[in-house]
Design brief:
By secondary structure, the protein is mostly beta strands. Helices cover 5% and strands 41% of the residues. Among the domains are: 460-606, no CATH class; 615-746, no CATH class. It has an 18-stranded parallel beta sheet that branches. It has a 15-stranded mixed beta sheet with strand order 1-4-7-10-14-17-20-23-26-29-32-35-38-41-44, with no helix packed on it. Strand 42 (403-404) and strand 43 form a beta hairpin. It binds calcium ion (CA). Residues 204, 207, 236, 238, 241, 659 line the site of calcium ion.
């Protein structure tokens, strides 16, 4: 690649020359100088065509006045062949500007947004359209440097048929901004977009679409959001955060999204004819209702497992005389004609607490079908529901009729219903009119976004590559990893010692496994064995790791994350592994993580940890107490922890933010012997769970350890401890009443 000293396009100059001269397209521009020359004088009817190739650090600005019949057009020579990379971005302002076919990838924006419907504070867009554009994994290095991918200002703009996938840093993917009058009552249309995989952020600020902010939430936005496809948009609790009035959400599909369409602020919202498919995946949610005059009708919700604020339907309690940024009471809102199948939770008066004490008023819930043959208790009612009138709601025969003040709530009947498949949904035979009634096609990945760009699967998957076999010896694993590619499996085929004199960097998804019957032992002479770089994930299976040969320094580890921000989430799996003699010096950890790193999941299964001076798993590097944490899911099963100086497991999530759902811990069938007693372990705990939202712990044995410490701080944590024994140690909590009420501990 040639060096560019100015913003320029890296392309084979000969072919560009051919195109511009011989193809005779006088609108074709090949570098930023040509682009700027044309863009600066663009008038109605002008067309600018970006030549094929990679445009690096291209900051495209178009200001101009087109007309409805003669817009100013920015397009590409060939769709899917023009790439905006490095620090590229687009700003448009004026009127009737039409942009089509840009792909942003391999870089990030430094201007606050990738695509902006304004070129300065004063210069906004009206009647403009951005269509068939792609933003793909276009992220900064730092996960808490925030930006938007798309910011929509002005009025009457359309953002459609775009594909946005892999937003990983803090900041909303698409934001409709209402800062001034010139951007309110905007009649924007956001339609036929494909919102692809959005990994868990582990913090507030991971919304996929936000309309307004609390500050302007009582203004009308009048934005139409229809025919969009949201796939695994898991950034945070709010897939969509509505924060303004009179918006419409119609005929959108939410496929396996771990969050909800939230009417967080603003009134008179219509949520009609949308599809929510959870496919039984944990934390998949539906619709959350707050504020006044909200209408939730004709929606289809299936297989949603989410609990609390992620339930299929959530009607919140409000704050009396709420400040603008807190929770307004739900008033005059209606939930009717929705079809809910196999959804696990419906919550009414959710979030009820000392502050949120105003229960819903003058609301109705009628003509809904709520069918779940697998679960009987679907409703949770936290406060007075006399402000909601219920009528003609049908439940499957097994589902308990909700009760309030020990009386069955009227307006629910049991009925055995039958369902037929109807283009991917289940239609009730007896009441075909309940549920979606639109004759428009349901949005899918094939009728939204663009047709000319590959759909990206950014989920982390192990074992998708080739097998690389490795024999015992010096640095054999190190060499194999250096030659590996995404998804490969490094297979240790012989028994014996695999000694590493260099730290092994893991740059992509990799498995390191033992061949059946082999008993490999990994030793290393450095301070860490594996270093997870940004983009790396690791699965270990059947490996014994010994720290006997390590550097005689404090702070060694077996696996550590990058010391710098990791924009990519990672996974770490350890199965049937053994970790011994990690004690050459103090504070030797099995896993050592750093700030601004985030694990989607960590699994310790059937592993033995023996003679370790530091911690096994300490995930407590986010200490700002703003709701940020280091890991979403932790599973510890069938493990033994013996003679561990530090903690076996510590999870930390500080602050009172409610927009995330983790950390989540499952821990079972494990024993802890002499854990946590090193004087450097300041937690006075063998297992310390601080701000954990969900923990299921059973069949645990603690013998002669420091305590199991539960610190409950925010939300409505679901913590269970059962069938467990504590000898010479105990379970302690800041909320002893909760512990007494909920736990059966032997
Ligand atoms: Ca949020």
């Amino acid at each position: 690649m040639s060096l560019c000293f100015h913003a320029c396009k890296v392309v084979d100059t000969e072919s560009a020359f051919d195109k511009s001269v011989f193809a005779g397209d006088e609108n074709l521009v090949s570098d930023m100088a040509e682009f700027n020359k044309r863009a600066s004088v663009a008038v109605a009817g002008d067309e600018i065509v970006l030549a094929k190739g990679i445009w690096k650090d291209a900051e495209l600005v178009i200001k101009g006045k087109g007309t409805a019949d003669n817009p100013i057009i920015l397009k590409v020579e060939e769709k899917g062949m023009v790439f905006m990379e490095g620090q590229s971005n687009l700003k448009i302002s004026g009127s009737h500007i039409h942009v089509e076919g840009l792909v942003f990838r391999n870089g990030h924006t430094t201007s606050g947004s990738v695509i902006s419907f304004r070129s300065s504070k004063q210069d906004l867009c009206n009647n403009c359209r951005v269509t068939e554009c792609v933003v793909d994994d276009y992220n900064p290095v730092e996960r808490f440097d925030s930006d938007y991918w798309v910011e929509i200002y002005g009025k009457n703009n359309r953002f459609d048929h775009c594909y946005l996938v892999g937003k990983r840093n803090k900041g909303v993917t698409v934001a409709v901004r209402l800062k001034t009058e010139a951007s309110r009552e905007n009649n924007h249309r956001i339609d036929h977009n494909f919102f692809g995989y959005h990994p868990v952020l582990g913090s507030n600020g991971g919304e996929t679409l936000r309309i307004g902010t609390s500050h302007h939430s009582l203004s009308n936005s009048n934005t139409m959001v229809e025919d969009n496809y949201f796939e695994s948009c898991n950034g945070e609790l709010e897939v969509i955060s509505n924060k303004s009035c009179q918006n419409v959400f119609r005929n959108n599909t939410f496929h396996e999204c771990k969050g909800t369409l939230t009417m967080r602020h603003g009134n008179e919202i219509l949520v009609d004819n949308n599809y929510f498919f959870g496919n039984r995946i944990v934390n998949t949610g539906g619709i959350r209702i707050i504020n006044e005059t909200q209408t939730v009708t004709n929606n289809y919700l299936e297989g949603l497992t989410g609990y609390r604020f992620r339930s299929a339907i959530v009607v919140m309690n409000g704050v009396p005389d709420s400040p603008i940024n807190r929770y307004f009471q739900v008033i005059d809102s209606k939930t009717s004609n929705n079809l809910m199948i196999d959804c696990d939770h419906i919550q009414l008066c959710a979030g009820s607490d000392e502050e949120r004490s105003a229960s819903p008023k003058n609301c109705e819930m009628n003509n809904n079908i709520i069918y779940n043959t697998q679960k009987d208790d679907l409703f949770t009612i936290y406060d007075d529901i006399s402000g909601i009138s219920f009528s003609d709601n049908i439940l499957s025969p097994n589902v308990n009729i909700p009760e309030h003040k020990e009386k069955a709530v009227e307006g629910f009947t049991h009925e055995k219903l039958s369902f037929r498949n109807d283009q991917g949904i289940k239609r009730c035979v007896e009441y075909p009119g309940i549920g979606p009634e639109s004759d428009k096609p349901r949005p899918t990945e094939s009728n939204t976004g663009v047709s000319w760009y590959p759909i990206k699967n950014y989920q982390i998957q192990f074992g998708t590559g080739k097998v690389i076999e490795v024999e015992p010896g010096d640095n054999t694993v190190y060499e194999a990893v250096r030659q590996s590619r995404e998804g490969d499996i490094i297979r240790l085929i012989g028994s014996g010692e695999y000694n590493q004199t260099q730290t092994i960097s893991i740059p992509h998804t990799l498995s390191v496994t033992a061949r059946a019957g082999a008993e490999p032992v990994l030793t290393y002479e450095t301070s860490t064995l594996f270093s997870l770089e940004n983009g790396g994930s690791l699965a270990m299976e059947g490996i014994k790791v010994s720290g006997a040969e390590c550097d005689d320094y404090s702070g060694n580890s077996v696996v550590r994350t990058s010391r710098f921000s990791m924009i990519n989430n990672y996974k770490l799996m350890m199965r049937n592994c053994e970790f011994v003699d990690l004690d050459v010096n103090h504070s030797f950890n099995v896993v050592r993580v750093y700030k601004s790193t985030f694990a989607d999941s960590i699994l310790l299964s059937n592993c033995n940890f023996d003679n370790i001076s530091g911690d096994v798993l300490r995930m407590d590097k986010e200490i700002d107490d703003v709701g940020i944490y280091n890991v979403e899911n932790v599973v510890v099963e069938h493990c033994t922890f013996k003679d561990i100086g530090g903690v076996a497991v510590k999870l930390y999530r500080g602050g009172r933010d409610e927009s995330t759902n983790g950390p989540i811990l499952e821990m079972n069938n494990s024993t802890f012997t002499n854990v946590g007693k090193d004087k450097r372990n300041k937690n006075n705990a063998a297992v310390a769970l601080y701000g954990v939202q969900y923990a299921d712990m059973n069949n645990l044995k603690f013998d002669n350890c420091r305590n199991l410490d539960l610190h409950l701080i925010v939300g409505e944590p679901v913590i269970t401890v059962s069938d467990s024994e504590f000898t010479n140690c105990k379970l302690v909590s800041n909320d002893e009443a909760y512990v007494r009420k909920n736990f059966k501990v032997q």
